[in-house]
């Protein structure tokens, strides 16, 4: 009898179950044969992650088998917190937690796997407590698996250590290999690292209509995770980003990995509403956040992207032709964008139209040396080109109530940037700048590093933390994809880290791109997407650029609401806005920070429609973006205050709009409406619509009332 009882306890000890607060999601954990930890996940009784291995391979041993369960502790958590900015003013973090302490019998080492189960998914991470037998260690591979239960449809971009700026592909999991091998042999990319590697956040949909999203949260002091697919078994395994030695991570106990996240629902809107990524990050570490604020901006930028003007003052390569640092002695190329006169024009435009800031790129010494690849590149972040009167422009901007936005293109010369960082941030403070767009174009120097390895992940955070010390907000381009760190460091008001709107001026992107980004890139945080392009025929800006941008004007307006960000650019040239002042009005009106968000309709690749209420002002806005086919929305306005009558101003694709042949055809209509109104609107492929609401007055009586 005693023997049987102890056997039962022992078996019970080997299998653990955890339910989400609503009971919809169930996690099972057990030790499989050989003491190997495995987990599985069910959603409403259906398996979404089949039994999958957990563990870490070290460079000299392993933490993936010969475990026994030393302790299991379960707890409940329910707390509401207030982000500094974002999609809503209060975020509820309600989850059930299970921390499983494992002891490796062969080495007497301990590892904790902490699971947090929310009603919309799972987060888990590895923790390595301080212990005598595990102090310093090198991670050679992470063995976390996500076993899929079928050949799901996925929206993916290739695994790559140096760029995230790909167009998405929609395919079955089993088709990834063929498509990637085709891409590599077609020379589309030299840097794709394998035939079945993809990046996170990865969005999938099962044939039964379950949406599964895989990503990570709180990526700190660890390399970014990709996913490698075993396409026979349909099992994803984590694929970390290596350092120059091929090692993944240098660790010292006590320490943890980032969280691995699985967001799951049978309603695509819940993926967008999920706050798992933010909830798994640490609370804000900045005591006084009063200096952090949303920013709507224009910039001396699109003219460079389209090739009309240049970032550099001269076409003479300093490293080749010039033996002086005095650029007044070199020949100007006559196409420089950041001239005093041009910047004044943008400042005037920003002031006239109520923008907070003007980004100026190409203002500083270094662009003329961009291709100095043989040595460490040496951008300077305090010395303007001779035709950029920084003090004069600083004072002019201040007199107009506009901020200049700093630009630091690091050219990925990391040591050069880190050496100059304090000086550069001090210079910003002294000259009235409080926000910087940083950039990491090119191969990382020191060589052998790449954009997403542990050392670089640490660099991005170092630059961000240091910026907080100077009360500087950061918008980093080409940095690692975000993982919710903006909760902890809300001065991270933007990131690019995906294919931005700029590609629409450099060859074009797929029409469904902005219907996929909310399910992928935006899971980790807001994007400096730079919407608002009104001229799709780029040759009208630069006759030698024959790109056509693949969207309609109404689509560009919808983005401001759909792709929430405290930092939004109106990216086109002032003269293009002057041609369409009525459509431009929406960009001027739309808010940047929200107290409430409602996800009205969503389907990756097809359409996303979101309603948001402006924080402080209480005004509602709606945005829709439409993907690779036309879409007819029918949505309820039940988010409006009951009993009140509003006017909805609807900016929509005209009936004959077409993203290729008639992209500038839009209509602007006003309707009366209430919280009982239902609204129907067609958007074309690559199209969309945007709505602003205001309370109706007596003069609005003549407007049609939406039933
Ligand atoms: C790439 C960035 O995405 C773009 O916005 C910037 O203008 C260029 N790098 C130059 O820094
Ligand atoms: Ca970029």
Strand content: 25-35%
CATH architecture classification name of the largest domain: Alpha-Beta Barrel
What is the CATH class of the largest domain? Alpha Beta
Low-pLDDT stretches are 1-12
- Note the gap between the termini: 73 Å
* Full CATH superfamily name of the largest domain: Aldolase class I
Number of domains: 2
Query: The CATH topology of the largest domain is what?
Result: TIM Barrel
The 3D shape can be described as globular
Largest sheet: 10 strands, antiparallel
Whole-number mean pLDDT = 95
Topology overview:
Elements lengths: L1 H13 E5 L5 E8 L3 E8 L2 E8 L2 E3 L3 E2 L3 E15 L9 E14 L4 E10 L2 E8 L7 E7 L2 E3 L5 E4 L12 E4 L3 H10 L11 E3 L2 E4 L5 E7 L7 E6 L4 E6 L8 E4 L2 E2 L2 E7 L2 H6 L2 H4 L15 E6 L1 H4 L12 H4 L18 H14 L3 E4 L29 H10 L3 E7 L4 H17 L4 E5 L14 H16 L3 E4 L15 E4 L17 H4 L36 H10 L4 E3 L4 H6 L1 H9 L4 E10 L3 E8 L5 E7 L4 E6 L9 E8 L12 E8 L4 E6 L4 E8 L12
Parallel strand pairs: 23-24, 23-29, 24-25, 25-26, 26-27, 27-28
Antiparallel strand pairs: 1-2, 2-3, 3-4, 5-6, 5-11, 7-8, 8-9, 9-10, 10-21, 10-22, 11-20, 12-19, 13-14, 13-16, 15-18, 16-17, 17-22, 18-19, 30-31, 31-32, 32-37, 33-36, 34-35, 34-37
């Amino acid at each position: 009898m005693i023997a049987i009882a102890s056997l039962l306890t022992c078996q019970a000890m080997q299998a653990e179950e955890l339910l989400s607060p609503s009971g919809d999601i169930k996690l099972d954990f057990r030790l499989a044969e050989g003491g190997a930890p495995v987990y599985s996940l069910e959603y409403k009784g259906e398996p979404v992650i089949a039994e999958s291995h957990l563990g870490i391979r070290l460079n000299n041993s392993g933490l993936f088998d010969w475990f026994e369960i030393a302790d299991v502790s379960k707890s409940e958590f329910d707390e509401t917190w207030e982000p500094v900015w974002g999609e809503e003013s209060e975020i509820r973090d309600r989850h059930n937690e299970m921390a499983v302490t494992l002891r490796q019998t062969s080495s007497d080492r301990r590892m904790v796997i902490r699971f947090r189960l929310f009603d919309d998914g799972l987060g888990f991470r590895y923790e390595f407590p301080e212990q005598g037998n595990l102090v310093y260690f090198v991670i050679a591979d992470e063995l976390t698996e996500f076993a899929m239960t079928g050949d799901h449809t996925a929206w993916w971009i290739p695994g790559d250590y140096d760029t995230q700026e790909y167009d998405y592909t929609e395919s079955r999991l089993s088709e990834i290999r063929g498509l990637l091998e085709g891409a590599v042999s077609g020379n589309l990319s030299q840097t794709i690292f394998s035939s079945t590697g993809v990046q996170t956040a990865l969005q999938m949909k099962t044939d039964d209509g379950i949406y599964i999203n895989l990503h990570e949260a709180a990526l700190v002091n660890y390399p970014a995770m990709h996913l490698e697919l075993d396409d026979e078994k349909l099992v994803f395994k984590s694929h970390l980003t290596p350092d120059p030695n091929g090692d993944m991570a240098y660790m010292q106990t006590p320490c943890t990995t980032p969280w691995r996240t699985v967001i799951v629902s049978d309603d695509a809107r819940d993926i967008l509403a999920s706050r798992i990524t933010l909830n798994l990050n640490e609370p804000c570490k900045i005591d006084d956040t009063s200096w952090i604020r949303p920013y709507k901006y224009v910039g001396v930028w699109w003219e460079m992207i389209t090739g009309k003007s240049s970032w550099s003052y001269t076409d003479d390569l300093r490293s080749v032709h010039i033996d002086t640092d005095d650029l007044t002695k070199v020949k100007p190329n006559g196409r420089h964008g950041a001239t005093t006169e041009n910047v004044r024009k943008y400042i005037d435009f920003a002031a006239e139209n109520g923008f907070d800031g003007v980004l100026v790129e190409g203002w500083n010494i270094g662009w003329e040396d961009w291709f100095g690849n043989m040595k460490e590149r040496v951008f300077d972040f305090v010395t303007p080109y001779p035709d950029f009167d920084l003090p004069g422009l600083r004072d002019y901007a201040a007199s107009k109530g506009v901020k200049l936005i700093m630009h630091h293109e690091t050219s990925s010369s990391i040591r050069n940037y880190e050496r100059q960082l304090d000086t550069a941030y001090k210079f910003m403070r002294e000259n009235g700048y409080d926000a910087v767009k940083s950039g990491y174009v090119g191969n990382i120097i020191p060589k052998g590093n790449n954009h997403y390895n542990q050392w670089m992940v640490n660099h991005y955070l170092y630059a961000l933390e240091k910026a907080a010390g100077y009360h500087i907000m950061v918008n980093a381009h080409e940095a690692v994809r975000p993982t919710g760190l903006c909760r902890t460091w809300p001065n991270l008001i933007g990131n690019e880290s995906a294919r931005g709107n700029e590609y629409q001026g450099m060859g074009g992107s797929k029409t469904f791109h902005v219907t996929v980004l909310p399910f992928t890139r935006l899971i980790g945080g807001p994007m400096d997407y730079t919407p608002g392009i009104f001229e799709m025929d780029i040759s009208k800006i630069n006759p030698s650029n024959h790109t056509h941008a693949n969207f309609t004007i109404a689509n560009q307006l919808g983005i401001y609401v759909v792709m929430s960000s405290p930092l939004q650019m109106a990216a086109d040239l002032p003269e293009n806005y002057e041609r369409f002042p009525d459509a431009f009005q929406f960009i001027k009106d739309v808010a940047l920070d929200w107290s409430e968000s409602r996800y009205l309709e969503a389907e990756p690749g097809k359409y996303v429609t979101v309603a948001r209420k402006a924080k402080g002002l209480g005004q509602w806005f709606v945005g829709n973006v439409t993907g690779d086919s036309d879409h007819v929305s029918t949505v309820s306005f039940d988010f409006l205050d009951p009993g009140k009558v509003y006017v909805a101003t609807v900016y929509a694709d005209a009936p004959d709009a077409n993203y290729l042949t008639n992209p500038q055809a839009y209509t602007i209509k006003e309707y009366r409406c209430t919280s009982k109104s239902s609204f129907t609107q067609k958007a074309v492929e690559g199209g969309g619509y945007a709505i602003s609401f205001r309370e109706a007055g007596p003069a609005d009586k003549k407007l049609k009332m939406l039933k």
